[in-house]
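Data availability (excerpt). The following record was deposited with the supplementary files.
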Amino acid sequence: MAFAYDKDANGIVTVTMDMDGPVNAMNSAFLPLFRDTIGRIAAEDGLKGVIWTSAKETFFAGGDLNMLKSVTPDGVEALFESVEGTKAVMRRMEKLPVPVVAAINGAALGGGYELCLACNYRIAADNPKSKIGLPEVTLGLLPGGGGTVRLTWLLGLEAAMPFLLEGRQVSPAKALTAGLVHEVVAPDQLLDRAKEYILSVQGDTSAVTQPWDTKGYKIPGGPSASPKNAPRIAGAAAMLFKKTRGLLPGPARILDIMTEAAGRVDFDTAQRYESRRFASLAPKPSTKNMIETLFFGMNKVNGGASRPKDIPRSKVERLGILGAGMMGQGIAYSAAMAGIPVVLKDMTLEAAERGKAYTEKLLNKRVGKGRMTTEERDTVVALITPTDKAEDIKGCDLIIEAVFERIDVKNAVLAEHEDLLAHGGFWGSNTSTLPITRLAEGSSRPENFVGLHFFSPVDKMPLLEIIAGDKTSDETLARAFDFARQIKKTPIIVGDKTGFYTSRTIGTKILEAVQLVAEGQDPVRVDNLSRLTGMPTGMLSLLDEVQLKLIHDIYTTQVGMGLVDPADEATPEARNMIAELVTDHDRKGRATGKGFYDYSAEGKEIWPGLAAWRKEDAALPDQDIQDRIIFRAVLETLRCLEEGVLRSVADGNVGSILGIGAPIHTGGYIQFVNTYGLGRFVERCEELTQHYGERFAPPEILKRHAAKQLEFH
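Predicted structure:
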């Protein structure tokens, strides 16, 4: 039975949700079940209270994203009516003359937490793995089941903003502190406590009246028009535009609903307004893109769609890291946070201890913010053993080498330490560009050698690019994938071609921006227009961050190793400009205070010397500048898919967003083509090719899909 219904001797009805499928969700089956159950409850004699709980590990997972992804502009009115129908039953439930309790046994996200908000009292089981919140904004949506309005009324504008505008999800303990739930109890006490509460408030009218239905109730912090809130709303609007550049409509609409709900209209009118805004958001391309990639694509990737099949799951029991610099210390932190004992080795004990201190520094910040206890911090820090002795690495089932990006240095480290691996252990080389097959030539067990490209800073960047060398075994790839999930990274498995996927692709859009400047375009205009595509930062600013010298050195190394031929360079003027800036003008990047910009304590200003490249007659349309930058990255991603560097469309989309700054509203570089329209995209590529060169020519995989009108999935 989808909703198990039980009335006990005390007159308390417990509804245990157990819908078809792995989770309870607001799908097409939910509303009839919900309506019939509330009707049955309302007809009960001798009713004392109602408890909603779940038979599944999660309490309730939210809306049906497959359904929402399929909504077209013609279906907006039907969606509006459906949402209003669900809300009407919620209103009927919260006006019952008895207390209604949400007994939250697991995660309650999105529509699941909206159901909880329509209950009078919320008790959560003390399960730190559970999450509570309204994450709809992270998928291009807004809480449309009453959540935006109810949470604004419950917490007030300021306190509700992180949960609504950022989609913050919290543990039950933090939900209690924030006011999202009333109590947190041990899991085995959840239902008993819910019944105890119901019996303790019999005859108390306040226990059966929602705050928004209570006469004289005032929203915490005051209405939206108050002198305190008006500037806060204006500031939030400005912050949202700066963050989204108007390309993501969801956050702005949420703020709009919050503003209306907090004092401009009554509760029920605000609910209808929320429904209308929610329904009109569903068919937007940005919403569909974000649902497709950040939910379905992410689940495919993390679920192991590209992981070699039929290989048992594994865990790293002891990790060795060679090199305690920026990358090594970040990997050590991530592993220790996952509970893995780490041996962190460097040339000197002092350097290794500095690497360990990085973890302690990060955790002290957590302690200071109340996100971790000192005991928890000490437990994590104790997992890292710094050393300068090779023998201390012995017995690790994974050793990650995180030394300088030089093949001779990496070869020397491999020769010294490989035999120290535990029996059957595997070796990971942290590199962004050096070929794994070439690095594995020095290994006695190349089948156990894999590339692990972490992103900086490791503690914040969620992606891990796993590179398969020519001899890397499927078992090693599977173990590397499992390690990535163990340390809570999202892994993509890619082929061993120059630059792999992420470095190769991010390089194209950066070089195209430099090419534009080398051709005479205004560098500030180029930087700003690239940012306005929705990328996190401008391409010239990004190049300064990653360091011009690093890009120049990597290219020089690749040429020296015969990996690339300068005669094949798609943007030679860009390469020449970077070389000149580095070698002739000593402009190496932001770390040295000098790149495309001059950096100081006051901020940054474009380097005046770039005027030497300016050409007053070199004006281009804004759209051409933006398309040249984003199309280069999209086309390179398609070529990676065509060449087998990428194993799946999901890997390309997720990897481009998490690793190389693809605009979130596009859903990733391959999904960008689907939304643009394949035929239209081919036509635009041909236009760009005619004006700017063969690097914009559509690859065969694109032409084949366009001819069949077949989207990439």
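Summary of structural features: The chain has a mean pLDDT of 96.
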